[in-house]
């Protein structure tokens, strides 16, 4: 009888405790969720170097391999237990693993009672950006040094030949070309810096694609005539896009100038435009030297030139296609490339199309004269820009 009473009392007390427990997860459960959802790799080790707790990010950063913590982290944890002082360690992969993290920095902190926590942070993106910055500064220095040095040498030649009118005229023409190239380089550097976020981009407006094509053609006419190249276009399309007209004209002009510069005299260059999957595609096709497949992914890099000798002869800066890429990205679009050496190339600029809203119909008004219902247009709205990464390499073959 006493046992039954004791059992009843224990069961009642357990029920009361369960009823008194607040609904929802406990603090321990929330802490576990926090660790598992952390963007940093987290591993908790005991005094023997065994893992007590870890999150999935620790696997991604290489902090945990085959259910064991990295040996460097374990050795550092032993020192932290002895000194009771936190320390930083380099946990970067010892061998290249493609697109995996390249620079991982870890911090080991004591938790007491022989436990330590290792927190790893991925600094790969910062390292890549720093490398890009160094390359950019080095490239800009080299590119600016070339025309500046040429101008200085040519000026000395003019001074030495001051009495020779023909030599002065010849060297003066070269100085003019080098100074023009220097000015173009500085202008394109400023434009590229603006597109990469140094300045706020202007507000996007509804732009006529046909107007952009006409203005870009006007800018390229002189260089095309000088190179004996005829540029043809398809019929006006009436397509509209959301963007900044000046930037779009600059991008298309760069594509046309690039096609003219890398095409032999007498060869054609064509422009086509179409609407595909909500994107307006403006393609520039040439019958020039083409680009090898292993270089096609690099032509949009700053200062990269597929044919350095031809680019020098035409005064190219190597920034035109980089500007095109950033203009497309800032408009929520992309730029694609199809090319074959000896056949030619097609660069396709893709920008989200402007969607015209359906016109609203006014209800018919009942009057003595019974006028017919009128259809009025509602103001156009700005749609959300959608980034698409679809490439259409066959687009150029149909031009």
Topology (elements, then pairings):
Elements: H1 2-20, H2 27-37, E1 41-45, E2 51-54, H3 56-60, E3 64-65, E4 68-69, H4 71-83, E5 87-90, E6 104-112, E7 115-122, H5 124-160, H6 165-198, E8 205-208, H7 209-226, E9 230-233, E10 240-243, H8 245-261, E11 268-276, E12 279-286, H9 308-314, H10 320-330, E13 334-340, E14 344-352, E15 360-361, E16 375-376
Parallel strand pairs: 9-11
Antiparallel strand pairs: 1-2, 1-7, 3-4, 5-6, 6-7, 8-10, 11-12, 12-14, 13-14, 15-16
Would you write up a description of this structure?
- The chain is an alpha+beta fold.
- Among the domains are: 30-123, PAS domain (Beta-Lactamase, 2-Layer Sandwich), CATH 3.30.450.20; 201-357, Histidine kinase-like ATPase, C-terminal domain (Heat Shock Protein 90, 2-Layer Sandwich).
- The chain has helices at 2-20, 27-37, 56-60, 71-83, 124-160, 165-198, 209-226, 245-261, 308-314, 320-330; strands at 41-45, 51-54, 64-65, 68-69, 87-90, 104-112, 115-122, 205-208, 230-233, 240-243, 268-276, 279-286, 334-340, 344-352, 360-361, 375-376.
- Helix 5 (124-160) runs antiparallel to helix 6, helix 6 (165-198) runs parallel beside helix 10 (320-330) and helix 8 (245-261) runs antiparallel to helix 10 (320-330).
- Mean pLDDT is 76; it is low at 309-314 and 366-399.
- This is Sensor-like histidine kinase SenX3.
- Keywords: ATP-binding, Cell membrane, Kinase, Membrane, Nucleotide-binding, Phosphoprotein, Transferase, Two-component regulatory system.
- It is an enzyme of class 2 (transferase).
């Amino acid at each position: 009888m006493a046992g039954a009473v004791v059992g009843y009392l224990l069961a009642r007390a357990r029920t009361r405790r369960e009823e008194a427990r607040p609904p929802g997860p406990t603090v321990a459960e929330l802490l576990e969720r926090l660790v598992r959802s952390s963007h940093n790799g987290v591993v908790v080790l005991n005094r023997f170097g065994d893992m007590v707790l870890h999150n999935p990010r620790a696997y991604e950063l290489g902090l945990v391999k085959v259910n064991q913590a990295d040996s460097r982290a374990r050795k550092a944890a032993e020192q932290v237990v002895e000194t009771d002082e936190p320390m930083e360690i380099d946990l970067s992969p010892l061998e290249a693993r493609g697109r995996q993290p390249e620079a991982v920095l870890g911090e080991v902190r004591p938790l007491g009672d022989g436990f330590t926590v290792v927190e790893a942070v991925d600094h790969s993106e910062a390292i890549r950006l720093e490398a890009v910055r160094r390359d950019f500064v080095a490239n800009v220095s080299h590119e600016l040094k070339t025309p500046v040095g040429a101008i200085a040498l040519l000026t000395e030649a003019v001074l030495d030949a001051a009495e020779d009118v023909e030599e002065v005229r010849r060297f003066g023409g070269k100085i003019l070309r080098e100074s023009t190239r220097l000015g173009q380089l500085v202008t394109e550097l400023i434009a590229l810096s603006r597109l990469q976020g140094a300045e706020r981009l202007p507000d996007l407006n509804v732009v006529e694609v046909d107007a952009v094509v006409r203005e870009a053609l006007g800018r390229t006419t002189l260089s095309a005539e000088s190179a004996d190249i005829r540029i043809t276009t398809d019929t006006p399309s009436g397509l509209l896009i959301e963007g900044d007209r000046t930037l779009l004209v600059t991008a298309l002009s760069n594509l046309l100038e690039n096609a003219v510069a890398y095409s032999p005299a007498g060869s054609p260059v064509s422009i086509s435009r179409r609407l595909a999957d909500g994107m307006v595609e403006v393609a520039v096709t040439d019958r020039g030297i083409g680009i090898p497949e292993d270089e096609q992914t690099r032509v949009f890099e700053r200062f990269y030139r597929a044919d350095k000798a031809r680019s020098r002869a035409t005064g190219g800066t190597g920034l035109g296609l980089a500007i095109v890429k950033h203009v497309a990205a800032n408009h929520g679009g992309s730029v694609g490339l199809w090319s074959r050496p000896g056949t030619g190339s097609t660069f396709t600029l893709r920008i989200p199309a402007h969607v015209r809203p359906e016109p609203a119909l006014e209800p018919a008004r009942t009057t003595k004269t019974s006028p017919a219902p009128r259809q009025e247009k509602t103001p156009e709205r700005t749609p959300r820009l959608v980034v698409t990464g679809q490439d259409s390499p066959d687009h150029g073959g149909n031009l």
